[in-house]
Every structure is written in structure tokens, then in C-alpha cells.
Write a structure and sequence with these properties.
Strand content: 25-35%
Number of strands: 17
Structural class: alpha/beta
CATH class of the largest domain: Alpha Beta
Helix content: 10-25%
Largest sheet: 7 strands, mixed
Number of domains: 2
CATH superfamily of the largest domain: Ribonuclease Z/Hydroxyacylglutathione hydrolase-like
Length: 239
């Protein structure tokens, strides 16, 4: 996601290529202008579908915010402007506050022996703010993240099955009910899939299932489903 807030452009977990390891991208890669004039890239964790070194090298953003413990790995990969943050810490990017918050997810980068860093989410801006969850399971402390204008919540994964540390549409709807943002946007669906797995309902249904369950659990939360490549403008916020 590209978050534009107060003239500041922040790109989250960018994967700009047509493939990552055994995963293939279904929609077209984003246009080059998406990653131009960035103020920072926000990296939530070390997994290949969120921290893609070729994409980060292509962007060469002036600043990369990454989980504490990832800095040496990123610098060895030739990246610059690395700021490590842990849950509970906050920095400013061109005057916009960016706070790291907890995420419940696996901390490893394979193969065995690779770097490890505790995954994080990000809350961008002053209340009401924008929450980018990264990859995470549901946890009770989400209720303390608000007030939020927008929550970007993962509702699926890159395959038909989800392992621990992820939310499906139902869990993401419960997260929206805990957080109570003004607008919830389902993410982490309809983009990457294994080369050997056929796309089907598992690939396209989750955002609509999320919307239906949010309507039942938290009718005051507006759900906006954005197809890959779409954008949304909300009052002073543009996404």
C-alpha cells in the first residue's frame, strides 16, 4: 500500500516484481511512479513476500523503517537509510509520526540460520491515524491502537491455507470490531499465489467475506474493498 498523508509518501512492504521465489504475481506489477518521490518504506517483517530485496534496491528510498534486528541484514544487502524500530517506539518521517506496534507473527527469514527480527505493524499520523498491520494474528491489545481513521488489515495469504500468525476474513473482522476504525480496508489477498496452485475462491472471496462479517460485528465500521491497483481518498488522507 502507498499511504499519502500530509504530503508524505510511505510505501508498505513493497513487492514490485512479477515473482518472488515460488510465488507468482497475478495483477500487473505497480507502475514505476508508485515508488517515486517516496519519503520512506515501511517493512513489517522479514518474510520474502514482505521484505523483497530486489524491490527495495530498485526503489532506493531515502529511508527504510524496519523491525529492530533487521538493520545489519539490510545494510549488507546494499540498502541505506535504515532505521530500526521495535514495538512501542516511534519516529518522525518528514514531520509525520510513525509508531511501531506489536504484531503476532513468525520472526524468521529462511533458510535456517537466517536473520530474525520481531515483526511489527505501523500506526501512521496523529489520532485519528492509519494502521498498517503487516502480517499478524489477532491479539487483544489491538483494542488500544485507536482512535484510527483507517485500518489496513490482512484477510488472507498467498495460498489456500493459512498457518499460525495470520488472520483470515473472520479473524480480521474481529480485529476491526476491536479497533473500530472509521474505515477498514482488507489487504494481503488477490496478488501472489504459488506457481503450482490454481487460483479460485480462496484467492478472490476473502475481502467480501470480511466485509460481510464486519457488517455483522461492527456496523459502524465502513469497509472499502480495493482491487489491486485501486486507490481511495478520504478527507485529508489519500491511500
Amino acid at each position: 500500500m502507498l499511504i499519502e498523508l500530509g504530503g508524505v509518501r510511505l510505501l508498505t512492504d513493497p513487492v514490485l516484481r512479477g515473482r518472488v521465489a515460488h510465488l507468482r504475481r497475478h495483477p500487473r506489477p505497480p507502475p514505476p511512479e508508485l515508488s517515486e518521490r517516496l519519503d520512506a518504506v515501511l517493512v513489517s517483517h522479514l518474510h520474502y513476500d514482505h521484505l523483497d530485496l530486489p524491490s527495495l534496491r530498485r526503489i532506493q528510498a531515502p529511508r527504510v523503517l524496519a523491525p529492530r534486528g533487521a538493520g545489519e541484514f539490510l545494510r549488507r544487502a546494499g540498502l541505506r537509510g535504515i532505521t530500526e524500530v521495535a514495538a512501542g517506539e516511534a519516529v518522525e518521517v518528514s514531520g509525520v509520526p510513525v509508531a511501531a506496534v506489536r504484531a503476532s507473527h513468525d520472526d524468521r527469514r529462511r533458510p535456517v540460520g537466517g536473520p530474525r527480527a520481531a515483526p511489527i505493524g505501523f500506526v501512521v499520523g496523529r489520532a485519528p491515524a492509519v494502521y498498517f498491520a503487516g502480517d499478524t494474528d489477532l491479539f487483544d491489545e489491538m483494542a488500544a491502537l485507536g482512535p484510527l481513521e483507517v485500518a489496513l488489515l490482512p484477510v488472507a495469504g498467498w495460498g489456500p491455507k493459512l498457518g499460525p500468525g495470520h488472520m483470515d476474513a473472520a479473524a480480521a473482522a474481529r480485529a476491526a470490531a476491536l479497533i473500530r476504525p472509521r474505515v477498514a480496508i482488507p489487504v494481503h489477498w488477490g496478488t501472489l499465489h504459488p506457481r503450482t496452485v490454481r487460483r479460485g475462491g480462496w484467492f478472490t472471496r476473502p475481502p467480501r467475506e470480511f466485509a460481510a462479517q464486519v457488517a455483522a460485528l461492527a456496523s459502524d465500521v465502513e469497509v472499502r474493498v480495493l482491487e489491486p491497483g485501486a486507490s481511495l481518498r478520504l478527507s485529508a488522507y489519500a491511500l
